[in-house]
Amino acid sequence: MTIQDLKQTITNLDEADFFDLFGWVCGDEYDRRKAAPAVEKARAEDAKELWETHPELKPQFATEVEPETSIDQLVAKVAAWAKPTSRATAYPPAALVSHEGKLWRNRRLGQNAKTPGEIFSGWQDVTRDFLRDEPINTEGEDAPGLITEPDEPTEPDASDEPVEPAPTVPEWREGELITKGTTRLYNGALYVAQRLHTTRDDRRPDTATDYWTKL
Asked: Could you give the CA distance from residue 74 to residue 64 in angstroms, rounded to a whole number?
């Protein structure tokens, strides 16, 4: 059913059924959706505690991987996705797995038992994030893009104006799942995340030094 089909169905409801539906959407369903992130996070924490006593239940996954020049090399370094048989074997937030020749990251705030690649699965294809165009040459000449010292010393830049961070870095916002090493702009400054967390008001980059470091 599409959104338009749903709208048409609601339009055809009589007054009593409409207000019953309206009360459910604005009451029970609104409360459920509002509480869902906290519930999912709590379930993920429960699973971590269970894995400590029953490590055989913990699924195989990575959180980071060294970049490679080919997809085959990259996929071979990461555990393949396996269909969870219960909540205890579902994948945690930010888990990295391989599936059908690609790398996938769990972007849900809680555990994920869905199949990577399916619609609304919560898995994001991050294969390109871990591919580099060519091998890095570490012998002889400098590697491409490596900045080296100039032959002659130069005068330091006397400008007091702040350096503008790269415009491609997204702005910090609340409610986003952040993995370690992620960069975000905040009030014109560039910050790097120090740990996996979900952004919120008391974890702003300029004050939450346990979560962010200014570059």
From this structure: 11
User: Range of 39's domain?
Assistant: 15-133
63 and 117 inside one domain = yes
172 CB-side CA count, 13 A: 26
Residue 28 counted as domain residue: yes
Task: Name, in order, each residue with C-beta under 8 angstroms of 179's C-beta and a sequence gap of 6 or more.
Answer: 63, 94, 193, 196
From first to last of its 215 residues, the chain has per-residue pLDDT tens of 788 888 888 898 898 888 888 888 888 877 777 766 776 777 777 777 888 888 888 999 999 999 999 999 999 999 999 999 988 899 999 999 999 999 999 998 888 999 999 999 999 999 999 998 755 454 544 444 444 455 555 555 555 555 554 447 888 998 888 888 888 889 888 888 888 888 998 899 999 988 989 88
The helix (run of H) or strand (run of E) holding residue 103 is strand 102-106
Smallest CA-to-CA distance from 184 within 201, 200, 167, 196 is with: 167
